[in-house]
Amino acid sequence: MDLINKKYDSIWDASKETIVFTGSSSIRLWSDIQDLFPEKQVINSAFGGSETIDLLFFSDDVILKYKPKKVFIYEGDNDISHKKKIKEILNSFSEIISKIKNQDTTTHIVIISPKPSISRWHLRRKYSRLNKSLRKICNENDNLEFANVWDIMIENKKLKKELFINDGLHMNKDGYELWYTVIKNYVN
């Protein structure tokens, strides 16, 4: 966490509107995210291996301190892999959302759907249930949106395996380019 904070504390301009991307390594490894939105101040405060409960615990340091106007959250992927119950994941999401809204009710939150992957394909039904629940929460709340990256990573009910690096979990450049086609609509 300290490395993230030191990096951004030196370049973050509090007078500019800020967009925070946070969550687990699928966001942390998106290295050119700032370059994709050059007219915006983007902070990538994601940290590898995180689950929703970790993001809740560190939310002051990785979200709230930047007073963002928009927050993109990618969580749930590791939770499902670590056998967390969907209700437990949703409760943590709810607490994170409340903390953000308590700081500023106008902050726009975009929940990025947990993605499919080669290494976790056997858990796809659980991911599907989580994504359905997250979409429902977003539909029922103001300033909350659901960015569906799941569907574009699948073709004819099969995972696009060419989007992944050797570990079968994290994406390559093509995967991030595909994500960009979805995410850009929520940034602007």
From TrEMBL:
<dbReference type="InterPro" id="IPR036514">
    <property type="entry name" value="SGNH_hydro_sf"/>
</dbReference>
<protein>
    <submittedName>
        <fullName>GDSL-type esterase/lipase family protein</fullName>
    </submittedName>
</protein>
<dbReference type="InterPro" id="IPR051532">
    <property type="entry name" value="Ester_Hydrolysis_Enzymes"/>
</dbReference>
<dbReference type="InterPro" id="IPR013830">
    <property type="entry name" value="SGNH_hydro"/>
</dbReference>
<dbReference type="Pfam" id="PF13472">
    <property type="entry name" value="Lipase_GDSL_2"/>
</dbReference>
<feature type="domain" description="SGNH hydrolase-type esterase">
    <location>
        <begin position="25"/>
        <end position="178"/>
    </location>
</feature>
